[in-house]
Design goal:
The complex is a heterodimer of chains A (183) and B (128). Chain A is an all-alpha fold and 183 residues long. Chain A contains 4 helices and no strands. In chain B, helix 1 (12-25) runs antiparallel to helix 2. Classes of the chains: A mainly alpha (183), B alpha+beta (128).
Amino acid sequence: MYALALLLEPNSGGQIQQIADTFGVDWPHLVAQIISFSIVCILLQRFAYKPVLNMLDQRRKQIAEGLADRERIKSELAQTETKCHELIVQANTQAALLIDEARKSAARLQQQETQRAISAAEQIVMKAREAAAQEHARMLAELKREVGQLVILTAANAMAKALTLEDQRRMVVETSERLATVA
Amino acid sequence: MRFCVVRGALDEGRARAVAHRLLQTKERGYLPLLRRFLHLVKLEYARHSAQIESAVPMPADLRAHVLDRLTNLYGPAVTSSFVHNPDLIGGMRIKIGSDVYDGSVRSTLARLAKRLGITATNLAAGAS
């Protein structure tokens, strides 16, 4: 760089020429090398560095996106786990409520069925008592009828044999006296 | 018909006269009229006709006694027929018109049977 600064100064032409001669600088050769080097730099810039930089930039972006996605997925996973936990807790609560309700319903149903069975048994007993009472009354009535029939037939038979002519006469007179009372 | 009833009793002579008159004149519809007249005469006769049943044959003094009572109640035109009915077991039964006076043992036993709820009791068979 220092040598180039010396080359740019106008009044230092002699010195530069002297230095160049000392170090063996061939100006045309140097210019050609500078041009070829510049071409190589341009070509490298155009076809090597730029694609590589673009690729690196894309990789960086992809990595950043991946990291962002990871963080997002992580947070979403945390949220999902929280929701899952809440849902599990809620499900447990509802299940406990359902079980409790089912137990209460079962107890209520059992009580109702017990009451129904008790009332049915009471009705059966009551009907049996009524049937027994009716049967008893029917038997009593039948017995009364049969005994009465027997008594009446026996009385008729006995009276037919026991009534004397005097009794017959007395009965006829009594009936005729009833006619007198009617009159 | 009112012409044929004299002092509460049917006058047979007047009834015959009415029937002869209807048959002689033969007015329109005289046959239904005669049938109606016959029916009324039967009713009037039955109203003063007494059927007296007794379990044993009734002696003459008792018959007179019963007839006397009937005459006092239904008038002197009462006709009577005495029937011996052993099914009565004892006592007497009088039927005159639609009136019935039953003092028989059978009716007393029948009332007792009805009170006891016995419907079909053959008392006559029991008595025999």
